[in-house]
Amino acid sequence: xxxxxxxxxxxxxxxxxxxxxxxxxxxxxxxxxxxxxxxxxxxxxxxxxxxxxxxxxxxxxxxxxxxxxxxxxxxxxxxxxxxxxxxxxxxxxxxxxxxxxxxxxxxxxxxxxxxxxxxxxxxxxxxxxxxxxxxxxxxxxxxxxxxxxxxxxxxxxxxxxxxxxxxxxxxxxxxxxxxxxxxxxxxxxxxxxxxxxxxxxxxxxxxxxxxxxxxxxxxxxxxxxxxxxxxxxxxxxxxxxxxxxxxxxxxxxxxxxxxxxxxxxxxxxxxxxxxxxxxxxxxxxxxxxxxxxxxxxxxxxxxxxxxxxxxxxxxxxxxxxxxxxxxxxxxxxxxxxxxxxxxxxxxxxxxxxxxxxxxx
Length: 360
Hints:
Blueprint: E1 7-11, H1 15-26, E2 30-35, E3 51-52, H2 60-79, E4 91-93, H3 98-110, E5 116-119, H4 120-126, E6 136-140, E7 144-145, H5 148-161, E8 165-168, E9 172-178, E10 181-187, E11 190-193, E12 196-199, H6 205-209, E13 218-229, E14 238-240, E15 245-250, E16 253-259, H7 269-283, E17 291-303, E18 309-312, E19 319-323, H8 327-344
Parallel strand pairs: 1-2, 1-12, 2-8, 4-14, 12-19
Antiparallel strand pairs: 3-7, 4-6, 5-6, 9-10, 10-11, 13-16, 13-17, 14-15, 15-16, 18-19
Helix pairs in contact: 1-5, 1-8, 2-8
């Protein structure tokens, strides 16, 4: 075990870094959270659709981790004593090919995840404003969504109140080393020594690791988040269908997620937002008076194999990495498990498939 009250520097104040700081300080570590942006959650976090969900297109071990992630968000809700309100309204998912919908449901059910298929009549009851109703859909009643920026701020506030030093607007320029050991960070405001440095800097993690000859194949995957103003709420839960992912963030705010294509006239973010608006009007009653209020592009960090990268780096002491897509879904569980590993020097089996060493 490292020193009794170790000093941990967490680089990155998105939702993953905020969760790490929160969980570390709750375990009595001395924590310094650093981000070059003056505000937390200013990167991929605030541009996230923020759906807490279990994916079907993944190994069973990853499905299991994401099931645990849902339970951990319930735990964090309890710990924050009513300050965090997750919208646990559930999710409906279907694909254009009904057989694919059935296949997805079967894989999730076989993995122990509590979902079930619902028919057209049930879908109409669940979403009465839906104009074009599929033959079947997957209902995941235990899924939800959060305000990712607000949640990040709540975690950082809780970490601060427990004693964490949060330095926003202070850029980490490089990592300090002594032989093969990381000893701290060099920031725009000076040096900070640490027992362990945790990199939760998303797409910037590879830049900080490059001088160490640590291989972290992380792709930058842009995604679009579209905000619509609505006179009233017309969708009851998260909907993922062949046309879009949508959810009501409030009675007057609906969010939609879309893949970034390019900057051409036909496919730039504004054009995609306009097509999404037309799709909403075509598929939903009550969507006739909505309008686009904001279009944001988030640069998602997606590891090459699509799975999280969490753990100590091989041959480099004092460095821990936590990078993943689905950062919102995984933030609570990753924060808890990683904090336990960092402060005990013991490995958690739930994270064993996601080590940085798999790329070396």
